[in-house]
Amino acid sequence: MADIYSVLNDIVNGLNATLTDCGFTAVIPDGVEKGELPAVTDSGRIIIEYKGENKALKLEHFNNKISLLGASKEGEILSSDYSQISLSLLDAETADGKDVKYIVNEFSETLVEHFGTKTQKPTKQKLPTPVSKAAAKSGAVSYDPNTLANRFTAIYPELREEYKANCDKYGQFLPEDFFMNHGTPVVLATIKENDPVKMRKLFNLLNDIYEDGTNEVQSLIAVTILGAMNNDQEMLAACIDYMCEDMMSPVINVNKFLASRGGKSAKMRLENPPKYKPEKAKKKGMMSMLGN
After folding, report:
1. Which residues pair with 88 in a beta bridge?
2. Secondary structure class of 54 (helix, strand, coil)
3. Considering just the CA atoms, what is the radius of gyration of the chain in Å?
4. Are 57 and 49 in contact (CB under 8 A)?
5. Entry pTM
6. Nearest to 252 by CA among 231, 273, 281, 275
7. Backbone torsions φ then ψ of 39, nearest 5 degrees
8. pLDDT tens across 51-78, in order?
9. Residue 165 in contact with residue 174, Cβ under 8 Å?
10. 32-68: string of b/e by CB count within 10 Å (b at 16+)?
11. How far are the Cα atoms of 9, 55, 245 from residue 16, in angstroms, in the given order?
């Protein structure tokens, strides 16, 4: 198990140059020596504060998540002035160098976007905004494929650049292209490894998105991602204990269908999708071919 304070120290060290360029200096709490992590722990929350001219910043770790909160105004900045500008998963039990690198890169881009000067290097095209958990759970809106990919690359940060490249290339996010070429192979490798910690992390995400997702994202999960198991009974058995009830039956049926004689042509179309055409209308989803 990694020490969360050590991980946070690595993140802070990685952000120091960007923080300085954006005009921030750390707020050193009482009792903290020079060179130590300038953190305060309160009710399980680890908070690191920064201040600049008419602006302030907080790094906050709580409940296996790390938030970047910013505020900008003249005069005294109050707690109510802060708003969340970036959020990433950070589990001390599984955090490694890749997680640190991803968070440093993500937070650095966010800092430059919100507080950078005109002389700093501009960021690439802004990524599509994911649907928040609060909005999905309230029923106001459903999870979409972009939200799946955004949260998926928090679990697999090595794919974050591929996700960004997908958005930059097409001017929008193309989920089939990303998951067929990058996401699905990583999922299959995780299932074959069948490590309980990694499986729980993966299926907690897939279950959550599936249960409150659009038909498109449900089809993406059941067909493009988990349908790629090719009806491998050992792999399916490994997933049974982790899949939610709503997802279990469609995934099993999709795998059976794609392995059947009638599913061969559908499988071939999945593995060899047509080239992207910007104005092309969306095709009917694969899930509809299976019936209710």
Report:
1. 66
2. coil
3. 22
4. yes
5. 0.53
6. 231
7. -115, 150
8. 999 999 999 999 989 999 999 988 899 9
9. no
10. eeeeebbbeeeeeebbbbbeeeebbbbbbbeeeebbb
11. 10, 16, 46
